[in-house]
Amino acid sequence: MKGIDLKLPRLGADGRERAWCDIEKEFLALFKKGIKRRLSKITIKKSYPELKSFHTHLLRNMDEVLIGKPEVLPVWIRYWTFILKNLRSNSSKKRSPRAIEKNISSYMMKLTNAFAYKRSRNEGLNKIAVMINVKTCLYCNQNYTIVVGNSPDDKGNIVLDGSQAFIEFDHFFDKSSFPFLSMSLYNLIPACAQCNHKKSNNPYSLSLHPYWGDYASQLTFKIKDPDALTNPKFMKIDLMEVEIDDGGNAELGRLMRNLAIKERYSRHLDIVREIEIAKYLQPYYEKILSGSFMGETGCNLEIFDSESLRRYLYGFYNDEKDINKRPLSKFSQDMFRQF
Ligand SMILES: [Zn+2]
After folding, report:
1. Which residues have beta carbons under 5 A from ligand 1 (an ion)?
2. Separation of 168 CA from ligand 1 center, angstroms?
3. How far is the CA of 146 from the centre of ligand 1 (A)?
4. Which residues touch 174 (CB under 8 Å, ≥6 apart)?
5. Which residues lie below 8 Å from residue 205, measured CB to CB, with a gap of 6+?
6. What is the value of pTM for the model shown?
């Protein structure tokens, strides 16, 4: 929902800060050799020079495929689409349309095996996820993405082997249509299982890519009838009608419908009630935060950092830049504004 700025370093779950170029180096060190070795073993029939030339190009540009920035990925997709078009329009006696399709499928299967996404998930991608440390789903901001169970060593350092980390990645450009992008760092979007499952193979343009665009600012959550919240008649109801304003971005609207965001968020009525209370108590909270309240209570709130204290009082991250730090931050911010 909130895009990731690739110019800014990431603070890993292990407490170490890394620039994206360092994460890229780590990514190549983990995967390039094995993928290249497996790709080199792929054989292609002489009667399919189109596939041969694609494959040669792939092998020569491994770095670009594995760590090319998001804008590079559609270039590879266009190239592959061009190859497929050429293949399909050049059938002959030796290459019947059926044989062509069979060879395309077989080549794609070999690519899938060579890039070995499923195996890499357990053997290294978790380590990358710990470094990227995106805590909430970049599509919905409703769920957490990463579970890190690594324990500190004797010196208190977190051992970053990733073996106890569990992460779900969505392939922004789907891996069944484009297996050569199945292990591209910037095609792997930290997401929750629901979004990963729902988005599936639906294609979207680069503008909705979480490492490229940022749709949090275009999108607004609203609830249809905020007055109903304080009406005792509705206290037992555990559903509400959420509206999503996509700011006129039709593709964003399609993505939200595809992920069933409206329906999923309709279950957070309890959060909305709390936010309404927070809004009501805002002058009181601000008095506490300004320190003028401390004298009356005898509490010394200076021992807490003001950001944590603010968050404790209001109950959510209220700065847009912090949306990805906790589920429902975007929703909470919009509700707070609506009241
Ligand atoms: Zn999600």
Report:
1. 137, 139-140, 192, 195
2. 10
3. 12
4. 200, 201, 203
5. 251
6. 0.89
Check: CB of residue 286 under 8 Å from CB of residue 292.
Answer: no
Write out pLDDT tens, residues 39-95: 999 999 999 999 999 999 999 999 999 999 999 999 999 999 999 999 999 988 889
* Helix, strand and coil percent figures for the chain, each rounded to 5: 55, 10, 40
DSSP string, 302-339: GGS-HHHHHHHHHSS--SGGGGGGSTTHHHHHHHHHH-
Cα dihedral 63, 118, 209, 134 sign: negative
Structure confidence by residue, pLDDT tens digits, 274-295: 999 999 999 999 988 887 776 6
Strands (E), the chain: 10-11, 17-18, 146-148, 165-167, 169-171, 188-190, 220-223, 242-245
Residue 70 amino acid letter: P
Dihedral over Cα of 221, 225, 230, 236: its sign: negative
CA of 44 to the centre of ligand 1 (A): 39
Angle between helices 269-280 and 329-338 (to 10 degrees): 50
- Ligand 1 center–CA 64 separation, angstroms: 28
| 194 Cα to the center of ligand 1, angstroms | 6
